[in-house]
Give the backbone structure.
Amino acid sequence: MNVIVIGGGAAGMTASVLLARKHCNVILLERGERLGRKLSASGNGQGNVTNIDMGPEHYFSDDRKKVARALARFSNAHTVRFLEELGGIFLPDPRGRVYPAGRQASAVTDLLRAELARLGVDVRFNAQVTRLSFDGNFRAVCGGQTFSAEKVILAAGGKAAPNFGTDGSAYALAEGFGHTVLPCSPVLVQLRCDPARVRGLKGVRIDALLRVVRRGKEIYAGRGDVLFTESGVSGDAVFRASSYAEKGDELLLDFLPDVEEERLRQALKRNTGAEKLLCVVNNALGRALWKQSGGEEAALLHLLKSFPLTVTGTLGFAYAQATRGGIPLAETDENLQSVKRSRLYFAGEILNVDGECGGYNLQWAFTSAHLAAEGALS
Ligand SMILES: Cc1cc2nc3c(=O)[nH]c(=O)nc-3n(C[C@H](O)[C@H](O)[C@H](O)COP(=O)(O)OP(=O)(O)OC[C@H]3O[C@@H](n4cnc5c(N)ncnc54)[C@H](O)[C@@H]3O)c2cc1C
């Protein structure tokens, strides 16, 4: 059987490996000059491939139940087994994030690339598919060439991080078969906030409890690194919150989540002026909070435990790690085969599934690639 796989990211490489192992003739068409560019950059270059705390509650989709069924078929343990069969050791960190023991994301790409070579998969670079049609067979047009196959796996990614080859133009290939593309927005991304509040704080990094509040109701709370930037906030806690936060929401930061208010009140009595905050919080943060409090202790206390920021937007797709939106899961069957055009399958970020920060998006790439490959083989 001939299969065309469009897109050489984590999902496309994985699907190609699985198909080639079952003796399919696979042509992997990659728009760029290298495979797995996004995978190689993942997890700050360390490759956070999955998480030990796995379940549909960590995902956003138009059909979370289907995500649950997909994860039941191919979950975190399967990912680790699949990768370790290629080589290497994969271990969780204390937060449950699973990385290669060598902590190099590019080495995960290298494992997949080596397996593709071993299996003799025909990989074409600089091969952007601009047209996909069906006349009994699929025809994929790239530049002056047309490739034909009985089945296609479309694994061309979403809109996030276009510097890795994913600008969203591949959605049109699915639209050509009558698919809907749900509106896309960037997630796992820095949040923009009211500039007056973050002035003077650029570069300050702090461990904080971050709450997202919408119309007075808390919709998310999580603890981790918050990094102040020129236009807002970044860091691990913010990336996780960005899966939930929308423009107009309020972020409330507790800079001292382990310290009760009474203990803090006592500490603030010991000195005067901005010196009250010495050894309480980072000095630059202390000075800014003192200024914003107008020197009033109650206001200062409030800012320390519940520093408010209004979300005015995100830094956009260029800086995002994942895409919300895309091809609805509802337009696919249990093996992610198109309900509009049989023998066309989807895998990875092109589908309307995005996970929280922490290895969930790569898990989805591996899960969906396995399901799509299994479908294509049946
Ligand atoms: C900086 C960064 C860090 C990240 N860190 C993590 C992490 O630690 N853990 C985690 O779980 N997730 C992480 N993610 C998200 C995760 O990497 C992606 O969700 C995942 O790699 C998506 O895999 P994919 O194969 O679906 O798509 P991609 O990896 O985006 O691959 C799609 C491929 O298709 C190619 N392509 C596009 N259009 C065409 C076309 N028309 N013809 C041919 N080829 C085409 C592209 O060039 C690209 O190579 C991170 C993302 C970024 C940007």
